[in-house]
Amino acid sequence: MALAARLWRFVPLARGVFPGPRLPRAAAGGRGRGCGRRLRGPEVMGNLGAFKRSLLFSALPYLGFEAYRLFSQAAVVHATAKVFGVEEILEQADYLYESGETEKLYQLLTQYKESEDAELLWRLARASRDIAQLSGTSEEEKKLLVYEALEYAKRALEKNESSFAAHKWYAICISDVGDYEGIKAKIANAYVIKEHFEKAIELNPKDATSIHLMGIWCYTFAEMPWYQRRIAKMLFATPPSSTYEEALGYFHRAEQVDPNFYSKNLLLLGKTYLKLHNKKLAAFWLMKAKDYPAHTEEDKQIQTEAAQLLTGFSDKN
Q: pTM above the 0.85 mark?
């Protein structure tokens, strides 16, 4: 899962109360597939054709590179629905996503933005969001892409309400849009976000990313200070709320579904145990986060944060 991107917030009254999530690659969702580990691609391993392809590229790296180079130069630019069927397009999209080719993926999928296929549409929502979060994207372009992503996710959901990935990405995109809307809308959106994460989990209980994101939702509202809760109650009779125990349950569940899939899940297990004053278990999970292999910049940041928290233990002892 490793689902990385610009941070979004659930809590509207304090930007930065808890950032989340830089999604691991397994946040991709999939055509009924489960969730792979970080850096293993967007859950394509559960698809036999994609799995065989990955084995082929592993065994024949040169031919794989040549095929990919030719594909990058020609197929991405010139592919059309008349030439490729939906399954072929999805295979191409998943390969580009796994390869980290954000711009090529967006270029490929925008050719099918009028598609009626939910699998194409939620991938386009994800690609639009990823483009929005690139450092070279201007603020004006970012806002347009964020709303564009939400529209694609909404259409994906309309086309297939049984798609767990459509529910997941609809929730994520709604949270992104919240940065551009008022406080009342952001609080109201929190209910919708929770509903769709829960539905995604119901449809695919093996998707560790959806479970992790639900844990973040709970952690965020458990962490909301009393004065923010008071303001929220002025806008809503029953504002969103949760507990650290609920958050902990989701983080553990995600870990059970896919152990060590995401360094941030390990970190949050440690931080949640700290909130619950269980230093022994907090230290256990923080150590796992600190020792997690750093494949990305986010992993390095998490290693640093975990190490700092562990140092805090030593200083107090």
A: no
